[in-house]
Fold this protein.
Amino acid sequence: MREASLDVGLESLRTELTGYCYRMLGSGFEAEDAVQETLVRAWRSRERYDARRGSLRTWVYRIATNICLDMLRSPQRRARAIDLGGPATGGGDLGPPLPEQHWVQPVPDALVLPAHADPEETALRRETVRLALVAALQRLPARQRAVLILRDVLCWRAEEVADLLDAGVAAVNSALQRARATLRAADLTAGDVLRPADAAQRDLLARYCDAFARHDVAALVALLHEDATMSMPPFAWRLRGRDRIAEALRDPRGSCAGSRLVPTAANGSPAFWQTRPGPGGRHVPFALVLLDVAGGRVRGIVTYLDADRLWPLFVRAGADVPVPPAVART
């Protein structure tokens, strides 16, 4: 393959590869690193690529899978705060922050989802990068994780996966059955992905943002599911239940008064930059908020407090974020 054609071919795979690596690793930052290393290795070993033995896509996915498997040798499993087990914790004391590698990290849609897919395909892809599913994938052994993503998300044939992993078809099918059983046991209740054309969802989100901007706790709580959850990585602090969330929102020590929510696109879900007044009164991003919505109610609120680290990831991804100039970082 000529070098110019290889360049084009590799670059055309970047978004889908990043989505694959994100599902494998649970971190947009690590997915970026894995994809960059994949493309570098592919370029350096380009003389060994033989189109007669398989497509460029299959060859590159083999490289990406091996890189992800190497990166997953750490015993640390990424999770959401709500998945940590034990009783939910509340109160004004958030406790000590946990290391970044402890958490499933959010990812901009622009980094992992095709930009020009049809609406039905886009909705399906959004489902596969939701926080709850990515967190559940982290429960699987690394090779089972790869098998499940390749078979059930990317729709590869068992023979293709077996060839990629240097395994037998029977072993791949067995790994897939075990992985599916683990996810079924996780009892993943499907939330609603972001559906910009859905008038009911748009109305719910508009009312939520309006109540948040007015710091109207009663109006906010009225939009929550009775068993709603709230968490704020990198802290293990978490709440379950509308009444406990209302109590936390009314706590003056953690007041969000004066903050706003500005829409963005992350994890295929309703997502917002939480901004607050900075120097000179200009609003600056303070946190990234992901909502889990279902049945016309907000069922989960995850607020990532490390906006200084996350914002550049969205900028690099070229995320289509409708942030007005007054909200730009200073």
